[in-house]
Amino acid sequence: MLLEQQCLGRSALIAIRQAKKTLANAACMIEHARFYIDMKTMTPLEEMRHSAAHILATAVLRLFPEAKLDIGPPTDTGFYYDFDLEHKFTAADLERIEDEMRKVIKENQRFERIEATRDEAEALFTKLNQPYKIIRLADIPDGEPVTFYRNGEFTDLCAGTHVNYTKQVKAIKLLSIAGAYHKGDEKNKQLQRIYGTAFPSKEELEHYLQQLEEARKRDHRRLGKDLKLFHIDEAVGQGLILWTPNGSIVRQELQNFILDELQRQGYQQVFTPHIGKLGLYRTSGHFPYYKESQFMPIIERDAMDDMVHRGCSCAELSNSVDEGDVDGYLLKPMNCPMHIKIFDSQPHSYRDLPVRLAEFGTVYRWEQSGELNGMTRVRGFTQDDAHIFCTEEQVASEISGCLELVKTVFSTLGMKDYRVRIGLRDPDSSKYTGDGALWDKAEAALRQVAGTLGVPYTEEPGEAAFYGPKIDFVVRDVIGREWQLGTVQVDYNLPIRFDLSYVGPDNKPHRPVMIHRAPFGSMERFTGVLIEHFAGNFPTWLAPEQVRLLPITDDQVPFCKEVQAKLKAAKVRCSIDDQSDKLGAKIRRAELEKVPYMFVVGKNEAAEGKVTVRSRVRKSVEGARSTAEAIDLLLTEIASRQLPEA
RNA sequence: GCCCUUGUAGCUCAGCCGGUAGAGCGCGUCCUUGGUAAGGACGAGGUCGGCGGUUCAAGUCCGCUCGAGGGCUCCA
After folding, report:
1. Which of A118, A342, A508, A519 is deepest in the core (most CB within 10 A)?
2. What is the CA A409 to C1' B12 distance in angstroms?
């Protein structure tokens, strides 16, 4: 990926990624077409990796002649090839295959491009008994040439391109085996995918593997355990985060930060319960549209007893719930319906608008077990949510205000590596509610404001919410997975579904427009990403412990306690390391726990009322300062939410 | 949900072809009172994720189950 970035630059990469995505989404384009076109835009590195994929297939066929091949493209970080094979690949197989690949490389086979007719291609793959290739062949759009690439005894349906000789593939490594559905469709057979990577040199491969290792060290699941930030307990449930004291401090500080901003922007805080009646979510559309990704409804006891008495089957119960014949409660999957009800509890004049209702609202969603991931994909999470009810004319400026807020959050935390995505509806899907004309209006409004954002953005059909289009801020984690954080969504639909209105200057009822927005997105996911962003080295304002006092001998403990009292009075989070260790050991401990500042106190400091400051970043000794001065510097840094020095 | 891998002390991990558990770190106590990333001694911690099976004997083999990791699919 690094190499690609060097070659292409980030914006070009995003553009390519987007081009691929657009292609994938285009209704008439099946996956092979995407594959086909990817092939034509390959960088030299991708070309080499794609060649490595063919070498992998060559080796697998030598060891497992009965293997059926699907496809083997390059990826951002390497390549893969999908196989259908009775035998399950093992780690030991991977080694054997890798050895065989080295042999193929050594044989220095030539990659040869061959054009053919469809009939010739079909005849060849029938002869070779490669059914997936015949399916892929049928997917090549009419008019596109059919080409093979041949190396040694191996011939593959392939648009290319490739390196000239196998020896040009310098350093390879097979990394993992995974299941992958044929053509990415759950209904199709699951094939075995072998992932690997290849580099122009052994050194670069080593460097990449080291990077992987480094990434693992800053994984939020690792750091969350090491720094005692959060805990997930089997007994509590999958995907349910327990915020431990340290993590809670980080979250609380983040919340305080956003609360400051909200107050400035004229938001009002509200609180709402964790459950609400099913009917509410039928009205909003959440229950019908996303039933599968919600926890089962809670059925009222009387209704349940009644059904049991009547000898109802589970299927009948389930049907009654769906039909609305039986009522119950739902763990709330979103906060909007409740905020809508707060808005609607009073008549509103146009003079009141915009009404901005904010809440750290906890929502619950039934994510598939295989999707759960640390803090970034969970089943219960708290959104820094708000809903703005405004007039048509106010929409643009309100969206701008929201985007400003997201930008403030990102810049305060020094998060520069994000991309902006406009999620539009997929015209061919039925998962959206409301009138197409209103959607067009909402999409236009978002586009217009996004244009003034000053950062590049991409438009992606199929990424909208069911009630409206949105602008998302997306970041990558250390493993390279993308996560949506901040989001701003325009909604013309829920106001209709809930029949909301305000009184206009003409003394007539008008329909307000809603904006849903969450600058962090979810506290859980944001914190997880933030842990990785800082590698656990939080800026002082967020650090669970801000100062560690290090007495050199027990004699300085009383003075340290005095300093500690002053720090605590100034609301600085601190502790004293009074264990019977040498200074070096205490420093090491504080460093490992990533405490931003250490105040070292020896005989001299205690006598003069001073402390020697050692910062986590500037390891060196900075000389003794008076306690008051040290605290002042610290408070300034905290109040300004300063970022750690690079 | 599906595929593959995996589950031994608080953490990281050893434990060969079955003979009822080890290390380092951490933790506790004591000694040591020292100037910028590990001072020393002793000690306490484990029904080897859970259930069942094979066996004279299971951490080790088999089945089921729960959790975790990597993917795939999904993601308001």
Report:
1. A519
2. 36
Q: Helices then strands (H, E): number in chain A? A: 23, 27
Is the C-beta atom of A603 closer than 7 angstroms to strand B? yes
| Cα angle, residue A168 at apex, residues A167 and A174 outer, rounded to 5° | 80
C-alpha to C-alpha distance for A28 and A25, rounded to whole angstroms: 8
- The per-residue DSSP string of A11-69 comes to HHHHHHHHHHHHHHHSTT--HHHHHHHHHHT--HHHHHHHHHHHHHHHHHHHH-TTPEE
Query: Which token pair is A377?
Result: 């994909």
- Structural contact between residues A413 and A473, judged by C-beta atoms closer than 8 angstroms: no
pLDDT for A568-590, tens place per residue?
Answer: 999 999 999 999 999 999 999 99
Token pair 């049907």: residue: A319
In which residue are the tokens 């602008």 written?
A471
Q: Of A70, A82, A385, A577, which is the active-site residue?
A: A385
Measuring CA to CA, which residue among A487, A408, A405, A399 is closest to residue A449? A399
Judge contact between A39 and A157, C-beta under 8 A.
Answer: no
> In degrees rounded to 5, what are phi and psi of residue A324?
85, 10
What would you measure as the largest C-alpha separation in chain A, in angstroms? 94
Please, which pLDDT band fits residue A561 given cuts at 50, 70 and 90?
A: very high
Is residue A472 part of the annotated active site? The answer reads no
Q: Classify residue A316 by burial, with Cβ atoms within 10 Å: 0-12, 13-18, 19+.
A: middle
CB within 8 Å of A560: residues ≥ 6 apart: A549, A551, A576, A578, A599, A601
The overall average pLDDT reported for chain A is 88
What's the CA–C1' distance between A402 and B76, in Å?
A: 19
Q: Strand B: which residues 4-33 of A lie within 7 A (CB)?
A: none
A365 is catalytic: yes
Q: How many CA atoms lie within 13 A of A586 on its CB side?
A: 22
**Rounded CA separation A367/A606 (Å):** 56
The answer to whether the beta carbons of residues A588 and A616 sit under 8 Å apart is no
A192 touches strand B (CB under 7 A): yes
Q: What's the CA–C1' distance between A92 and B19, in Å?
A: 30
pTM comes to 0.91
Residue type, A440: D
Secondary structure class of A554 (helix, strand, coil) = helix
Residue A300 has a pLDDT of 87
> Tokens in use for A15?
């553009």
* Residue A466, CB, strand B, below 7 Å: yes
Q: Residue A126 CA to nucleotide B11 C1', Å?
A: 56
Nucleotides of B under 7 A from a protein CB: 1-5, 11-12, 30-39, 66-76
Is the Cβ atom of A586 within 7 Å of strand B at any atom? no
Contact criterion met (CB below 8 Å) for A513 and A395: yes
A176 touches strand B (CB under 7 A): yes
Sequence-ordered alpha helix ranges (H) in A155-231:
202-217, 220-226
- What is the ipTM score, two decimals? 0.94
